[in-house]
Amino acid sequence: MLKPAAIVGQVILYGAFAAFIGYFATSPTYHQIPDDVALIKLSISHLGARECRKRTPEELAKMPPNMRAPMDCPRERSDIQLEVDLDGKDVFRTVLHPTGLYKDGVSTVYKRFEVKAGSHQLTVRMDDNLVKPGFDYVKDEPITLAPRQVMVIDFNPDQGGLFFK
Amino acid sequence: MSFHAALRNGTKSIFLRVEEAFDAPFGGQDNPLRHLGAMGLYLLWIVVGSGLYLYTVLDTGIDAVYNSIGYLSHEQWYLGGVLRSLHRYASDGFMLVMMLHLVREWSYGRYYGFRLYSWMTGIPLIWLAYIAGIGGYWIVWDQLAQVSATATTELLDWLPIFSEPSARNFISPGAINDRFFTVLIFIHLGVPLLLILGLWAHVHRVAHLDYLPTRRVMLATAAALTLLALFRPALSNPPADLAIVPGKLAFDWFILFIHPLTDLTSPALVWTLLFALTALLFALPLLPHAKAQPVAVVDPANCTGCDRCHVDCPYAAISMAPHPDRPGYQLAVVDADLCASCGICAGSCPSSTPFRRRETLITGIDMPQLPVNALRQQLEQALAQLAGRTRIVVFSCARGARATPLGGADTAVIDLICTGMLPPAFVEYALRGGADGVLVTACRSGGCDFRLGERWTGERLLGEREPHLRHSVPGSRLQLWLGSASDSSTLAAALAEFRARIETLGVANDRLPSYLRRASHHA
């Protein structure tokens, strides 16, 4: 039979266990970013360009008839150069490399930037064929970010290349 | 002393102090700190049981999952809401108990030798528990789930395992679909099943395992968590919206602490920390530690194949095999990798009785470092030297309260590897050899370093377990005293009290007839 003091002790200790669990299961609250900050997520997955060469008639003639593809394209994809400027200041510069053992996969990037909410000028430049000089895709436009808003910079050739959403 | 040893000893002393303080209100058997493994299993069953109910009522779909869980908390609070809260709080309790169990076992040095297997199989379970816990939060698909899903995938993307960043799956509101939740629930069921399978492996080399704590502890824990569920029900945060970053969130620090840690540092640091800690846990057994003691040795000529040692071994280190020389008989076989060198088997062996007349007492299973024959010789010498009005023999545990300082003209102290190695017949042998009383000291209830020494000793002396102390031995002349190393100071008082009690018996009419081994007819 438990003594009254032992019962009281057990009630206190079980209560402390429950209180400890209950408190740290919800508290203290967590705030991932300050209230006046928005998030820009740069998330691009894209296949770099390939430098294809047109086969000459002599080359095609030497090939078996069923394999006479007019273009000779290597498996390797080009690196992708990417630049992000915010309000005229560069915030991100990178060269993305294609994935895969033969460097024939997509090049990807995922990056998040915390910026003050409000109006900004956002510029993104992307070059997916480093053999050719200059950027193939440029998106430069003013944006207005609400506090805690998430804005995504993505790329889709079917939507005209770089886009913000 | 190395830094590791100092840290371990310091942590151990903290655990010991708290555990022993908890003995006061709980007692050894009900002390949750002494049964953290069983507590963890019990909390896991609460998680599984409440989770099964949640699974049956959960609708999978981006909005449906949030609404169906919200329905439980708001409309069916008395059942679904309570079970949801129990699911969460028992999960948190499981994490807490699991980490305490890990630290305790480490501090007690239970990670090498015969415990190596349990230690190694326990480490992956921590990963599985956290994978299951974090995944469980995603199912609710509220803002906390959003934070966790985004943060987890961003963390995973640091590792070169995906060709495309997995965080792209949570990039915008249209990025996920209903099927995602079907997969998520499949994972949330699969990982805990793996965890349970891993737990089976973790404990299957431990005999007489407490799969659950005592009924009293289970009821009290369930009551505490249910009250918590009623007074502070687990509720969802606002629904997830990938177009915004959630504001202040009620946050589960037991399971999701890794996200703030990542935000505060970097994925590289967090992975380095996680992998380094895991590697360290795996490597701990390689660090210098106490030298292994000689393991139990079976003597086929004296082993009767009774299987008591097989039954009593706390670590399933003994199996029974056909006797090589005696057809139809069995023979105990010791697995040296599993043997804890506790001697509990020697205490359980019926051949360990000191009443056997042989000059050299060879028992069926024995400890090379303290053979039963040496124990008998030690006892006989001590009995021959005892003098005084009340002569007492103390059989003490080397890992429990220090009894050696109590030795004197009228008190003989015989240290055992573990009190569980004391064959009960030694008590009668001491009384018939001239002792007026026998004091047997063992560790506190639930506090035996070899798990079952104090329990088996108590049961054998009370006649509840074989080999039992003969009923003709007067209980007034035997005292079983339980205490840890920190109780050494009170042992002297216990001995004095026992001596005084024997002295009040007056003219002894309960004395056993004396016994002279050399004149007896025992085999």
Automatic annotation (TrEMBL), chain A:
Domain of life of the organism encoding this protein: Bacteria
Q: What is this protein called?
A: Uncharacterized protein
Q: Which organism is it from?
A: Accumulibacter regalis
TrEMBL record, chain B:
Q: Name one GO biological process term.
A: respiratory electron transport chain
* Annotated InterPro entries: 4Fe4S_Fe-S-bd (IPR017896), 4Fe4S_Fe_S_CS (IPR017900), Cyt_b/b6_N (IPR005797), Cytb/b6-like_sf (IPR027387), Di-haem_cyt_TM (IPR016174), MvhD/FlpD (IPR003813)
Q: Name one GO molecular function term.
A: oxidoreductase activity
Q: Where is the Cytochrome b/b6 N-terminal region profile domain?
A: 1-221
GO annotation, cellular component aspect: membrane
Write out the entry's keywords from A to Z. Answer: Iron, Iron-sulfur, Membrane, Metal-binding, Oxidoreductase, Transmembrane, Transmembrane helix
Transmembrane parts of this sequence: 39-58, 116-140, 180-201, 213-231, 268-287
Domain (4Fe-4S ferredoxin-type) spans 294-323, 330-359
- Subunit field text: The main subunits of complex b-c1 are: cytochrome b, cytochrome c1 and the Rieske protein.
Write the protein's name. Ferredoxin
What is the source species? Accumulibacter regalis
